[in-house]
Automatic annotation (TrEMBL):
It comes from the Bacteria. Residues 47-66 bind DNA. This is TetR/AcrR family transcriptional regulator. Keywords: DNA-binding, Transcription, Transcription regulation. Residues 24-84 form the HTH tetR-type domain. It comes from Frateuria flava. PROSITE patterns: HTH_TETR_2.
Length: 213
């Protein structure tokens, strides 16, 4: 039997906008704009009002996706970390375990530096929150510690493969790798990437030799 009420309900279900998907797409759009702004002005430079203007929304619309400015900053930090891992670690995993994989990680990291001479959200955040307390400081520490752990894991695999000495101090070598990459980001912004990358490559060759059998 014809049922007008049921037919209207079916029609609404067929024509209704998939709200969760649309909401996710809007959230990602806001994050994309926030990420690009954070590359230049850091996480502390993010403004709900400016982002609302960027994406053509009201402030309340942005707040609907991020309950506070701090929530937005944490989301941008997480997005930056995921981008970094996808660009640096994931491609390097296709290289054989050991020193080849460590070299691949460094090569991808250098390319990340080339792409981010105008600003890296992760490095800027480390400087913004190293002397503070709170969720953002804790998130930065967790992210940095996690990445240092990935380096130490790669170093341990290189030791197991016989590419590095059995007495290699993994935390120390991870620190030295990180220090050279900080030098790349620093000099690339001041003196140009090509000059900086040449010095970094030379430094890494000496570093690898110093820990090899």
């Amino acid at each position: 039997m014809f049922n007008r009420t049921n037919d209207r309900a079916i029609l609404r279900s067929m024509t209704a906008t998939p709200t969760p998907a649309k909401g996710l797409a809007t959230r990602e759009l806001i994050l994309e704009h926030a990420y690009e702004r954070a590359r230049v002005g850091g996480l502390e430079g993010l403004s709900i009002g400016t982002l609302a203007t960027d994406v053509g929304m009201s402030k309340s619309g942005v707040f609907a996706h991020f309950g506070s400015r701090e929530d937005l900053q944490l989301a941008v930090l997480d997005a930056a970390a995921r981008r970094f891992m996808a660009h640096v670690l994931v491609p390097a995993l296709s290289a054989p375990r050991g020193l080849p994989r460590l070299r691949a990680i460094v090569a991808q990291w250098c390319e990340w530096g080339r792409m981010h001479t105008s600003g890296c959200v992760l490095l800027t955040a480390a400087g913004e929150y190293d002397g503070r307390e709170g969720p953002l400081h804790d998130a930065v520490v967790a992210q940095q510690a996690g990445w240092r752990g990935e380096l130490e894991k790669g170093i341990a695999q290189a030791v197991a493969a016989g590419h590095l000495r059995a007495d290699t101090d993994a935390p120390q070598l991870a620190f030295e790798i990180y220090a050279l990459m900080l030098g790349l980001h620093h000099d690339a912004g001041l003196f140009g990437f090509e000059q900086a990358i040449g010095r970094v490559h030379a430094a890494f060759e000496r570093l690898w030799r110093s820990w090899q059998p």
